[in-house]
Amino acid sequence: MEFDPNAASVLKSNLFGLPCSPETAALIIIPIPWEVTTSSGTGTSNGPLRVLEASHQIDLYDSLNPGLWKKGISSDQFPIDLKTKGDDLQDLIKRSIANHEGIVEDAVVKKVNKGCEKLNDWVKDRALAWMARGKLVGTLGGDHSTCFGLLCAACEVYEEISILQIDAHADFRVAYQGFNYSHASIMYNAWKLPQIDKLVSVGVRDYCEEEAKTMHGHENIICYYDQKIKSEMFEGKTWKSIATKIVSHLGKDVYLSFDVDGLSRSFCPGTGTPVPGGLEYEQALFLVKTIVDSGRKIIGFDISETGDGTWDGNVTARLLWRIAGMTI
Ligand SMILES: [Mn+2]
């Protein structure tokens, strides 16, 4: 049967209902239903499923990339066992906190760190296997820590990588609550990878003193705080001029780390740790387009922290479609 991109979606198991398999798709998305170290609001482990469901409602035309659907976007196999393992570890943490006045026992911390290491190895292996076959790879969280394996894989392929992070948080904590691979430490961990030579964060508006000190001590870590961006815009600067400045710090190979809480909360009502302020949907996509238009290459990306809601899934599915349109 011929595929009709104008018809209602029938291939419900495929992202966007596209007629492709991982073998034929240009972009592979690894769904990672994991939120073990999530500290407050939960539900992001259901994010990947919400995105898959919402993706079937999206019209398959992209004005910047009209043939996008033919290039193919495919989900890697859905790791159901990962969700079970993650949920078990999360329960262990919750029980420890409840039984020990807010303290997580050392044995539990150890077990969780081990579980996170295993996850990272699994993601890295999957990503490397697809990259070796010439695919662009993205991950769909889950909490923000889930992209670490993809970053590690990218570091085996590229020598110098700049990260563009869109996020409400700096995520630069050192082992938050004892967890080496916490969502709050993802950029701290990424920065330790020798191939990561620039980190440019955008939209940050919730960070602690320790994070500010560590970040301000590095000339290759540049933070465009939300408050600063907005002040400059209120005083008449255009987003185009700010976006161009942001992109000018990046090297030629760029990894995009998109935590949806970097957006205004109206676009991510179910995300775990929302903060007022943030970027508009088109404002964020304009920034991504500015990267691509500058001739830089997006070599991998994650969209993380999508909440367990229909609207949350809808926004991320559309973000994914638009980002795919600019990268494949
Ligand atoms: Mn984050």
Describe it.
The chain is α/β, with parallel strands linked by helices and 328 residues long. It has one domain (15-327): Arginase, Chain A (3-Layer(aba) Sandwich), CATH 3.40.800.10. 41% of the residues lie in helices and 15% in strands. It contains 11 helices and 8 strands. β4 (161-166), α6 and β5 form a beta-alpha-beta unit. α4 packs across α5 (148-157) and α10 (281-293) packs parallel to α11. It is globular. The structure holds manganese (II) ion.
Write the layout of secondary structure elements.
Blueprint: E1 27-32, H1 47-55, H2 68-71, E2 73-75, H3 80-99, H4 106-132, E3 136-141, H5 148-157, E4 161-166, H6 186-191, E5 196-204, H7 209-216, E6 221-225, H8 226-234, H9 239-248, E7 253-259, H10 281-293, E8 297-304, H11 310-327
Helix pairs in contact: 1-11, 3-4, 4-5, 9-10, 10-11
The structure holds manganese (II) ion.
Write a brief caption for the model.
The chain is 41% helix and 15% strand. It has 328 residues and is of the alpha/beta class. The model has no long low-confidence stretch (mean pLDDT 95).
Tell me the CATH superfamily: Ureohydrolase domain
Q: Approximately what portion of the residues adopt beta-strand conformation?
A: 15-25%
Write down the overall mean pLDDT.
95
| Tally of discrete structural domains | 1
Q: Give the structural class.
A: alpha/beta
